[in-house]
């Protein structure tokens, strides 16, 4: 029997397909200027035109009125480091010195479970304030950092993916596990957390240079033993990093081939950055349904390079957007879209706003093999959604009042919006954030 029926009125948008590969016969999205979202027991029961659906509601059903605002699926951030929250906006000359100067000392503090719990709470507050309802999260080498994160997300009822970093070389002793201890701790955490409530586990070698071949071998064996887990790591972010990988793995065809040789390219594998790939790398990603997490704010901040959307699309690579905090400089997926648009322009391609919102919702869910669970308003999907306010700031209000299309509305939100544009965030039908107003 259906319980806890809820209804929400507002302009309604969700995606059915990638706008880059859709046409009039196969529309990319469903848009209702006056829409209604019906939620029951934490899942979507219906989404569509208000006039049509309102008549189907039982008598006395309370309708939460968000007229003038947009209802859309919550954003999905496919690559972010919760331990780096406190070192966001730290200056460095590039990726490798940034890791040594800021990242590793900051992550050392997560051997303290109380510190990890405190940061996890703040991190989740920031995600929800920015409208992000699911993220693929890097913890630290410490198992207690994973326990702290999943405990905090479980208390809020969130759909989150996370994992303990595996790192047994080329890092400080205070952050170093061993191939065997890293695999053992990872397996224990998988058994403790994977599919417990809304938690999902990601096997997480930090990146090839900080793992021995033995550790990568064991990570691949875990990926084979637990095929419904996720894999997350970094690849081809920075030219100096790529050169380092060539020195460390001289027999590998390429950086991504290192992971491929250990069985880590498969569905539910998420590769951060993917800037300096060659055509065979992209083809291999498409063949294995491995996905790319595009991190434009981080790539610009660290001077890593520009992601090539056109070549990735030509190869058929699964794509999503990610903040990559703390290399990334904002938790906001709207600000991430802003930078993604500019990166595309600098590489000679164009990202329509519709596609940017797709990549942050259904595109990310597809990249994670979670379509039907999160990412749009399909019947039965988990009711993770946000309320977006086009009048959140004076400039947004002025610009959106003059919009003449859905594309113009979304483009203004992507280029001018930030956390202030998120009026409310819901997870499994429960409000988990509401914007404070003065």
Automatic annotation (TrEMBL):
Q: What is its EC number?
A: 3.5.4.3
Instruction: Enumerate the spans annotated as Amidohydrolase-related domain.
Output: 71-432
- Mind listing the UniProt keywords for this protein, alphabetically? Hydrolase, Metal-binding, Zinc
Pathway this chain belongs to: Purine metabolism; guanine degradation; xanthine from guanine: step 1/1
State how the cofactor is bound: Binds 1 zinc ion per subunit.
Q: What does this protein do?
A: Catalyzes the hydrolytic deamination of guanine, producing xanthine and ammonia.
Q: Which NCBIfam families match?
A: guan_deamin, PRK09228.1
Q: Which family does it belong to?
A: Belongs to the metallo-dependent hydrolases superfamily. ATZ/TRZ family.
Protein's recorded name:
Guanine deaminase
Gene field: guaD
């Amino acid at each position: 029997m259906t319980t806890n029926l809820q209804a929400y009125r507002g302009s309604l948008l969700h995606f059915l397909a990638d706008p880059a590969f859709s046409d009039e016969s196969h529309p990319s999205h469903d848009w209702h200027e006056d829409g209604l979202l019906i939620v029951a027991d934490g899942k979507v029961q219906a989404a569509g035109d208000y006039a049509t659906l309102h008549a189907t509601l039982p008598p006395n059903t309370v309708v939460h009125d968000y007229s003038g605002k947009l209802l859309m699926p919550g954003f999905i951030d496919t690559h972010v480091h919760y331990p780096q929250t406190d070192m966001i906006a730290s200056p460095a000359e590039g990726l490798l010195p940034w890791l040594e100067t800021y990242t590793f000392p900051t992550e050392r503090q997560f051997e303290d479970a109380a510190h990890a719990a405190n940061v996890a709470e703040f991190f989740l507050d920031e995600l929800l304030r920015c409208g992000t309802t699911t993220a693929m999260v890097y913890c630290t080498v410490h198992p207690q950092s994973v326990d702290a994160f999943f405990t905090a997300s479980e208390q809020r009822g969130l759909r989150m993916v996370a994992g303990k970093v595996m790192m047994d070389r080329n890092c400080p002793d205070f952050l170093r596990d061993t191939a065997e201890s890293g695999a053992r701790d990872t397996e224990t955490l998988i058994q403790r957390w994977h599919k417990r409530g809304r938690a999902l586990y990601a096997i997480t070698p930090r990146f090839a240079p900080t793992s021995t071949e033995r550790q990568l071998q064991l990570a691949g064996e875990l990926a084979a033993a637990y095929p419904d887990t996720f894999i997350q790591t970094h690849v081809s972010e920075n030219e100096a990093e790529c050169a380092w990988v060539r020195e460390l793995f001289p027999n590998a065809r390429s950086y991504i081939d290192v992971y491929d040789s250990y069985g880590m390219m498969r569905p539910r594998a998420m590769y951060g950055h993917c800037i300096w790939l060659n055509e065979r790398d992209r083809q291999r990603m498409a063949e294995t349904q491995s996905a790319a997490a595009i991190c434009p704010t981080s790539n610009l901040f660290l001077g890593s390079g520009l992601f090539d959307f056109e070549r990735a699309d030509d190869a058929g690579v699964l794509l999503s957007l990610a903040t990559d905090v703390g290399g990334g400089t904002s938790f906001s997926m709207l600000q991430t879209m802003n930078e993604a648009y500019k990166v595309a322009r600098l590489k000679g391609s164009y990202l329509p706003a519709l596609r940017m919102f797709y990549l942050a919702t259904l595109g990310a869910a597809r990249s994670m093999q979670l379509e039907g669970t999160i990412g749009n308003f399909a019947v039965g999907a988990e009711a993770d959604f946000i309320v977006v306010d086009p009048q959140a700031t004076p400039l947004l209000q002025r610009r959106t009042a003059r919009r003449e299309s859905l594309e113009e509305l979304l483009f203004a939100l992507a280029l001018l919006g930030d956390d202030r544009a998120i009026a409310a965030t819901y997870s499994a039908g429960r409000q988990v954030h509401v914007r404070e107003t003065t």
